[in-house]
## 1
Amino acid sequence: MRGRLLALLIVVVTAVLITVGTLWPIQSASAMAGTSPRSLNGSSGSASPQAAAQSLLQAISRRNWGAAYAALANKSEFSETEFVRDLTGSYTSLRSYATLDGFDLSPLRAASDEAQFQANLNWSSVVGTFQDVRNLRVIKAGDRWQVVWPIDREPKIPPQVIPVNYLRWDVIYRGAQDDWGTQDVESPHVRIVDMHPVDRGGGTVILGELLNEDVVPAFVTVKATLLAKDGSALATEDSFEKISHILLPKQVTPFRIDFKNVRLAQVDNVRIEPSSTLVAASADPVIGVESQKLNPLPLPSLTGQLVNQSGQVVNITHVLSTFYDNRGQIIWVADQYTNRALLPQTPVPFSISYPADLADKINNYRVVTSTFSVGRFQ
Amino acid sequence: MKERTILLSVSIMAAAMQLAAAESGGLQVPRTVEAGSAFSITTSASSKAVLYIVSPLQVLRRDVEPGASVDIGSGALHNAGHYLALLVGPSSTEKAEFDVVAASQPASVSFLAKPSRLPVNLPEGISGVAYVFDVFRNLVLKPMPVSFKLSDSGTPQTRSVATRNGVAWVKMNSAPKAGAAQFQVSVGSVANKRVVQQVPGDPCNLRMSARRSGERVVVETEPVRDCSGNAVSDGTIVTFTQTYNGRSEATVDVPLKRDVARTELPAREGSVISVATGVVMGNEIRLGGR
């Protein structure tokens, strides 16, 4: 009897939710589903400024570049190719493979013939999400509304020669036919130079720094095991992406290992196991991190610009930051991937968020980058 | 296949031990035989018999005619060790024991040299271990002089050590000068070689200079060397950090190329640029005044 009542209740609640969702859909969901107020006349515009902006973002989310471009009011200012490059990047980057997961439109101002919205575009990529904020101006053309797209052209690098002395390491490993006495090349020597467990959000976080003290490049990982008072292992995790895996000689990387389900009070000891493998690597490109600045609450972040000082295009850059207190102790490690390619000598902004409660404690920070270029192994 | 041979050998040896307890004599074998050499076994068999030669690694079977000797050809017995010869006739079994020893001429040497890479100026930092084998890969147990030679750009280090139970080992110092050293071992006419990289130590006296270039400042280290004067390996990361009011404003990790690291930073008045590599700090430069 009780089971039937429960089943009936579930059916009724589901029906109510479907009705509510149909009658009052959320903005981005309806747009993504293609049920938002439609463009009245395809490319010529929409009946309201909000509908025009939604219609445009909906076309972008479907990667229907032709329809999106056709709906713009300022088509004469740029070509469709430039419009697509603005959204997906001129060079291969995280943007090239990202999908628009959703968007929010916030009205900024409205008049009889013009309105302005702030559009927060939430893109989804293989390494997480990133946000793109655009201010959209919507103007009335006749009885229709059209969006003036704020084109963001990637700078073009003038043709030039940038001399670079490339430096790379190649490795000859032991072969299957070698005598048993033939030793393989020695693994790089790495050393943990700092390690600090902290209690964070009911879990334990291991923060630290790892140094490659050898003269060859290393592929590094750090594994940590939390031990209880009786010596038993509570949990084992590794640093995964919160580390720069390729370390050149004398390079230091921060690392962060999260244990979400173990409280620090349970931990008696921590066993850290850094591992290193000798890998072929390149010493280029060199990335400068400039204009670093800590931004206060309510959105605490470390912002700056990445400058590719080499001559090749960097497709994906991983930015890692270590935050220190006034005693020089590590209090947080955070990271971010840039969603645009780094062109030579062209600054690209980055922003790394950190927990709000650490804002008062952070005294200094250090930023490192690791890069990936298409067609190169690093 | 090898396991089956060993199993068969052990079974035959166990059975032979029981029989041998009752019967012996008449079977004449050399006390020691060099691995791979030919030899003869004289028997006193009065009727047809079968001769088994057994060791943990090898088994031979030969039919024996009455009164004939058995010739074991060159290369037939090649594993060094203790052997048992059993002559099994219709009514009796005879037994004899002998040893096969490694050939006296070394044919190969296995060479373990560790580590493959180490800092310069490390006393007894390099170890070399040589195992001497004959042509059949038997360890040559007879003491033999082994020569170790570590050659780099300086004076080579040479040691001669006699093998003990087939093994010889040495420890050698790494040279004060960086570079690839050839570590060679030789026994008679046989030699083997390994490469040991002698690498520079930590940088010593890291210094940089700066010069303005418009809105930028170009910073460049002096050639980076270790405390023995060796150029620190190219590719070593040098970190330039620009701080303003104690906070980091710009950071660049630059690899050494041709002994120097060079980069550009914003020329901000009052900022301080520092240089470091690994855990070694260099000098600081303050831009302009405040």
## 2
Amino acid sequence: MPLTPNFSSSQTTGEPSIVVLTDSSTGSDVSIVSRRVYLVNSEGDYVVPTGTSTDYVVWPIVSGTGDTIDIDVLTEDAALDITVNWVDVSGVTVETKTTLCGFTLFNETFYYSLTQAQATQSQPPPMIIQDSNYYTNKMILRVQIDSGNNAITLGDDITTAQNCYDLATFMVTNQSDFF
Amino acid sequence: MALSILQIINIAKISGYLSLSDVQKGSLFGKRIAPDTPKVLYMERKAVEWMYNLDPADDTLRLTANYLYSLCRGYNLRAQAVSGTGGSISPVDPINAPDPYDFTVSGSSFITAGSTTKTITAFIGFNLLFVRGGIPQSTINSGGTYYSWNRNTGEFVCSPALQSGEEVQLYPV
């Protein structure tokens, strides 16, 4: 059965800088010996880990389907166009798959930490929810993250998604002003 | 039987629209005491649901889910009836955590001025939430303030060092 290329992306709690890719292809092709991962941000620039001299990250074939790779590239939430090329021994692309993905673990972790803070502050004031415009700002942060995700899943729009994530990142970076 | 995290999330979803409907009735029968309840339920449910989808075994979920359930007050039993899980009052799983620390940094405070480390044996086995100057801190070093916590050894490290006069809260979760 010929190879039908596919992959998924995810992140792991506590490691927001790392993009995890999982090969979910079906079928096989004996000519394929490796994979190359291209990460492109909303500016059209390739994103690679520090010390990488190519535009891509090599993803060796171990078992094929089910293989995972951790790519440490993020410094903040980002929308990335991810292309995986399945290549032969000469480096020629045999199969390719591109997916637009959103990575929001930096801001989502902060958002969750606010809820944790609310849940633990049960004693008398001052409490975090009494800060000026606390819930208004928290809702704005929620809307920005969700809007970025919707721009990806519904609009396939990397520019708008990154804009939304950047707005959320601004609030988190300047958290003392908003929360 | 105690409510599961997923049951609480579903109760919060239903409580969200029940509370919104209730607030709408306020225009006819008098303003409701907490008109922001639908928005608050939505915000907190999204946080808990995000963590549940990311890692359903995360050990902070019981605390935050119980908090979410507490916000459903007034709607939780109707929500259970709507979802078909009603018929009895289900307890939530309790959290038996040690008392938090809440202090102003000085030369004789729990963590003294100028310090960056402290071994907190009472919190061993728990996760730690570090609030500095009223702001929850992150364990991610993104160039600002951050901290680390080893739940097995009780070793707490913060950066930069605590300064005299800062308000600090340490919560076991």
